[in-house]
Amino acid sequence: MSVLPEFREVMASAWSHDLTELPGLDYLSSPTGTIKEAQDLAAVTFGADATWFLVNGTTAGIQAAVLATCGPGDALILARNCHLAAFSAMALSGCHPIYVMPVQDDGLGIAHGITPDALRRAFNTALSEGRHVGAVLVVCPTYFGVTSDIAELASICHEFGAPLLVDEAHGAHFAFHASFPVPALAQGADVAIQSTHKVLSSLGQSSMLHVRGERVSHERVSRALQALQSSSPSYLLLASLDSARAHAQLPDTFREPLEAAAAARKLLRQLPGSGLLDDHIQTGADGVHGVDPLRLTLLADSLGMSGFALDDLLQSDFGVCAEMCTDKTVVLALGPGSRVTHVRQLAAALEAIQGRSKSLNQRSEPPPLAAKLPLPEMRLTPRQAFFARTERVPADEAAGRICAELLCPYPPGVPAVVPGEVLSSEVISMLQQTAAGGGKVAGGVDGSLKTFAVVFEPP
Ligand SMILES: Cc1ncc(COP(=O)(O)O)c(C=O)c1O
């Protein structure tokens, strides 16, 4: 792991630095001293007017951004492939979701960004329903490093008088090199929430929320975060955020990782059987504005096996650990610690696997695409469903009932049903087929999908 040397020393004596709100150490919930100084430095660095340090990840940042902008009954227009945190944020705020389906790559079964036209349609739906739109929430970049046309989306939001909130969990590094996509704030987004712990070098769970411009009240963000965060924040996490900012600013932090990413693309393109997402998608196509060079998405199909099988092999036989995989892809995340030697190891592993793959023939039937099913009917808002009395019923009795849990199949990472929506037999069988095909269904309590939590309806 590549980190600031001074922070390495702090962590070598972590116990003595695991402090609390002692004199001189400031208060996270109402900072006026050292924490404010560090947050102000971060704001300047990330191009924000104000930055908040988060000790419960981007999860708390998304929840705070929604609470700061959407009151009970307001509409939140959101991409359907938003993170789980967006759904808990709606339960907290009591807002009314209007979903926008992301563009779906049918061949790969993955979701990209939303289009400006789809966003415009969602605003028109809100207008026709007489709803005030509190905010729009999108995820950019996606897990696969694909970015959306944030400038265009922001301009539509502003035309309709709503702020654009961007879940930039995977893009905290964008401000630090011209080779990266332009950060969301620089493109006109009002809020960007970044998992500093993902690509940058802060400790797990530490993130930042940035606000730019006047559309989002700083006071409401602070109040929301006071409600959501611990009153005993870890000073190790806070120090790691300041350190990650300083580390990312060093002139050479991304030089070798970018060289490694370029070398990886070159080496992999020379391997006859290996495919890369970059070569498969077209920048400028719907929902695809650019690709983060530090995300390498391998297309497992070209090696004749599923992404799950390729991920297993890479990890068990070659010590290559992927960020995530789907039926057809394996996503590798490069960061400040990535070196050219690492990507040579990856290329050698893929070459060896290629030799074996013909005999392995592990390719399975692709799971059905969740995003191809129509959006389920919403009978209750996420908040009403959260507080409703629920029961658990066998799968064959669940169709037609109001779902009480969020069920999100990977691929493609687009929730098939969220609390308050009606479970259909098509959704149930698609989820079961996804799991049977080696995919994952996140969010449910019963991983076997033999039972589902539904809202109780009196006989
Ligand atoms: C797109 C996206 N948003 C938000 C989150 C939540 O971030 P955190 O783990 O920092 O709370 C994640 C986590 O993986 C994510 O992938």
Automatic annotation (TrEMBL):
Residues 374-434 form the Orn/Lys/Arg decarboxylase C-terminal domain. Keywords: Decarboxylase, Lyase, Pyridoxal phosphate. It comes from the Eukaryota. Its cofactor is pyridoxal 5'-phosphate. Belongs to the Orn/Lys/Arg decarboxylase class-I family. PANTHER family: ARGININE DECARBOXYLASE. This is Arginine decarboxylase. It comes from Coccomyxa subellipsoidea.
